[in-house]
């Protein structure tokens, strides 16, 4: 597993690449910005549910 | 996708991602977060914003203008691949914070259409209807 220590954080690479798992990436689940976004998305899906043919 | 992207970092549960945009306006920490918003079928919301360098507060109402839009969008697209590898084939809901942002994302999807459409089915909402994404249709909301 690559570590955050051996890559420059703003480095650019080309093509698909795996994420570097880092303990420094914290959860934003309780961040007001993301809480609001999630509530808006839920509200939208309640108003615009997937049509039956797209429910797998 | 054979596109330039930033190196990106994930939390241990692969629901939170971070990377750094680097351009004329400096180094800006970008946050991507996936949150389950419904079951049966499972759907996750993709939220994306900038973290303030001093406070860490995340926002999406400032135009970064770091001249790296395509690299940023390709990096976000990469997180979708990574998330899907970990969580399986689920619906992912994404929208811009404003109509112009949504339009920007639509243009990004259109530009990456060849690469994205081989891995994902993309649907959008126009008015009240959900339908298949077409490169030429103006989109309001996107689903992967």
Characterize the structure shown.
The complex is a heterodimer of chains A (56) and B (144). Chain A is an alpha+beta fold. Chain A contains one helix and two strands, in the order E-E-H. Chain A has one domain (4-54). Chain A is 29% helix and 9% strand. The longest helix of chain A is centred in the C-terminal third of the chain and has 16 residues, at 32-47. The two termini of chain A are 34 Å apart. Chain B is α+β, with helices and mostly antiparallel strands. Chain B has one domain (8-143). In chain B, 27% of the residues lie in helices and 37% in strands. In chain B, strands 2, 3, 4, 5, 6, 7, 8, 9 and 10 form a nine-stranded mixed beta sheet that branches. In chain B, strand 8 (123-126) and strand 9 form a beta hairpin. Classes of the chains: A alpha+beta (56), B alpha+beta (144). The A-B interface holds A 4, 7-29, 31, 33-34, 37-38, 41-42, 44-45, 48, 50-51, 54-56 and B 1-22, 27, 31, 33, 35, 37-38, 40-41, 43, 45, 47, 49, 57-60, 71, 78-79, 81-82, 91, 93, 95, 123, 125, 128, 130, 141. Strand 2 of chain A pairs parallel with strand 2 of chain B.
Element order of chain B: H for helix, E for strand: EEEEEEHEHHEEE
Radius of gyration of chain B: 15 Å
Order of helices and strands of chain A: EEH
Give a short account of the largest sheet of chain B. 9 strands, mixed
Helix content of chain B: 25-40%
- Our Rg estimate of chain A from Cα atoms comes to 18 Å
Average pLDDT rating of chain A: 84
**Approximately what portion of the residues of chain B adopt beta-strand conformation?**
35-45%
Instruction: Tell me the structural class of chain B.
Output: alpha+beta
Query: Structural class, judged by helices and strands of chain A?
Result: alpha+beta
| Biggest sheet character of chain A | none
Domain module count of chain A:
1
Averaged pLDDT of chain B:
83
The total beta strand count of chain A reads 2
Number of helices of chain B: 3
Strand content of chain A: 5-15%
How many domains of chain B? The number is 1
Can you tell me the overall shape of chain A?
flat
Largest interface: A-B, 39 and 51 residues
Shape of chain B: globular
Number of helices of chain A: 1
């Amino acid at each position: 597993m690559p570590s955050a220590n051996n890559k420059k954080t703003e480095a650019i690479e080309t093509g698909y690449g795996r994420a570097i798992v880092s303990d420094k990436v914290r959860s934003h689940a309780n961040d007001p910005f993301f809480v609001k976004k999630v509530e808006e998305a839920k509200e939208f899906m309640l108003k615009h549910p997937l049509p039956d043919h797209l429910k797998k | 996708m054979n596109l330039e992207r930033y190196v990106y970092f994930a939390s241990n549960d692969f629901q939170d991602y971070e990377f750094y945009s680097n351009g004329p306006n400096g180094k800006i920490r970008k946050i991507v977060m996936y949150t389950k918003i419904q079951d049966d079928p499972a759907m996750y919301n993709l939220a994306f914003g900038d973290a303030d360098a001093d406070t860490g507060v995340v926002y999406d109402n400032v135009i970064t203008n770091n001249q790296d839009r395509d690299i940023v969008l390709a990096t976000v697209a990469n997180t979708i691949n990574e998330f899907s590898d970990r969580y399986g084939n689920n619906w992912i809901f994404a929208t811009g914070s404003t109509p112009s942002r949504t339009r920007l994302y639509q243009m990004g999807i259109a530009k990456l259409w060849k690469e994205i459409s081989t891995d994902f089915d993309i649907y959008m909402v126009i008015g009240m209807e959900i339908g298949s994404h077409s490169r030429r249709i103006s989109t309001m909301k996107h689903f992967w």
